[in-house]
Amino acid sequence: MATRPDYMDDYDAHGVVCIRQAFPEEWVELVRRGIERNIQAPSPFFRKLDDGSGAFLSDSWSRRHIPEFERFCRESPAGRIAAHALACSRIRLAQDTWFVKEPGTSDRTPWHHDTVIQGPFCSIWVALDPIPRSATLEFVRGSHAWGKILMPKSFFADASRHSAADAYYAEFHGDKSRLDASLFGEIPDIEADRAAYDIVSWDMEPGDCVLFDARTVHGAPGNRTSRVARRFVTRWVTDEAYVAPHAQNMVDALEKFGLEAGLRVGGPIRNALFPEFQY
């Protein structure tokens, strides 16, 4: 594996780093086309949340039938970036996903971190459009080192009080009916006192990406601009990663929709759904 880039020092220290122009235009245009194809041929994981002013769309594990995504995952710089972040020459693709926030979307992506996989686990979010800081993903710098598994407030609240966005992010983050809620901390009310947290975000141009540790707490405002905001995301692990004790929802969903993932709580991330790459 090549010498680790200097920007990985920020990734290690802060849990997140913005990498400018990491993906040339050919990769940006490729996944834009893939998203259009995916919207016309959605998977069982496709979601469209519409708050009446603008819609939020997403799909996951679509590379199996969207050739543009498959090529991006196998050939773009994403895997090499992840290998540097995880300090491992052999890594696995855990998930491909994408997010589209149409102009005017008001619902905020709730603050959360990604803990259904434990162990070495990172995400790479690639901007496909110019996205101002007012609409980009935000991070609490250094929160990857808090050392706790935290759940959004919606995990502890009555499900009838969830917003559509809360329900979407709760879908794969644990089912409190199966779990002892006392085992988890609650994401603090960051919006109530933003000045108390070291919140970072960046104006993004197509081809820029944010690389972050899955444990770094993150969220995003709605898209109150006049332009669509599209992002393509790949998530990566090493063979040391394993399925978290509170991830049964994810395991069940994959089985329900016919994805032969071979996962079990406490078990490793293997199988053809999670291809291995070597750098």
From TrEMBL:
Coiled coil ranges (UniProt) are none
Question: What is a GO molecular function of this protein?
Answer: iron ion binding
Is Oxidoreductase found in the keyword set?
yes
Q: Which domain of life is it from?
A: Bacteria
Q: List UniProt keywords, sorted A-Z.
A: Dioxygenase, Oxidoreductase
**Signal sequence bounds:** none
Which Pfam families does this UniProt record tie to the protein? Answer: PhyH (PF05721)
PANTHER family hit by this protein: PHYTANOYL-COA DIOXYGENASE, PHYTANOYL-COA DIOXYGENASE DOMAIN CONTAINING 1
Name it.
Phytanoyl-CoA dioxygenase family protein
Give the species this sequence originates from: Parapusillimonas granuli
